[in-house]
Design brief:
binds guanosine-5'-monophosphate; five-stranded parallel sheet; four-stranded mixed sheet; alpha/beta; Rossmann fold; elongated; single chain
Length: 218
């Protein structure tokens, strides 16, 4: 009894833990698909091309941008990142909500293009946890770590633009919160065109049953 699929825009400062939450959602919910972004940044040792990102040269990226292939793109921490229109379309055409793990600039572009989007901002519980997560990646140099931390300040100020803010204090807890948001959003009446045939059928049956029991009075 759900409405149509919608984009889920999830943002967080780098190291906020959103990618892990997104991964858990993908594993545990059949109604959510992931939009694999394009980026000009170099792959980390554990990342796979076409799975974590489509890793492109700057030239390849700019060619896609000039052909209008991106629903949104932005420069983040000195590299370009973009969401392919085809990535959004493919997931939604399959009837699944599409998870976009994108920065605050991209989020603004997507919500303008898809007003039905659900926006969620993930906040790390403390500076210590944020720094520890970034250092734990081992792929950040002193320089990129400092850049990501200074960008985190700017990104945190954007949290109030999002419909939901979830503190990622503990992974399972944060996952449950995001899961509950998606359940509630899927059931929202405004998302169902004129209530949707299934719901109308259930209500009609209830009304018939009640009328039979107590007559037509209100
Ligand atoms: P990372 O380099 O840590 O994978 O990602 C850096 C930042 O870029 C994160 O905030 C991430 O959400 C964002 N990002 C990843 N893919 C996209 C995208 O397609 N578009 C935009 N605008 N940001 C993205």
């Amino acid at each position: 009894m759900s409405g149509g699929p919608f984009p889920i825009v999830m943002s967080a400062p780098s190291g906020g833990g959103k990618t892990t939450i997104a991964r858990l959602l993908m594993e545990r919910r059949k109604d959510v698909g992931y939009s694999v972004s394009c980026t000009t940044r170099a792959p980390r040792p554990t990342e796979r091309d076409g799975v974590d990102y489509h890793f492109l040269t700057r030239q390849e990226f700019d060619a896609k941008a000039s052909h209008g292939e991106f629903a949104e793109w932005a420069e983040v921490h000195g590299n370009r990142y973009g969401t392919l229109r085809s990535a959004i379309r493919d997931v939604m055409d399959a009837g699944r909500h599409v998870m976009l793990d994108i920065d605050v600039q991209g989020a603004r572009q997507v919500t303008a293009a898809f007003p039905e989007s659900v926006t969620i901002f993930i906040v790390p519980p403390s500076v210590e946890v944020l720094v520890a997560r970034l250092q734990g990646r081992k792929s950040e140099s002193e320089e990129t770590l400092a850049l990501r931390l200074s960008n985190a300040r700017v990104e945190l100020l954007e949290a109030e633009r999002y419909q939901y803010v979830v503190v990622n204090d503990e992974l399972e807890h944060a996952f449950r919160s995001v899961n509950a948001i998606l359940d509630a959003e899927s059931l929202k009446r405004e998302r169902k065109p004129a209530l949707g045939g299934e719901v109308v059928g259930v209500i009609a049956q209830l009304l018939d049953g009640l009328t039979a029991k107590v007559g037509g009075r209100r």
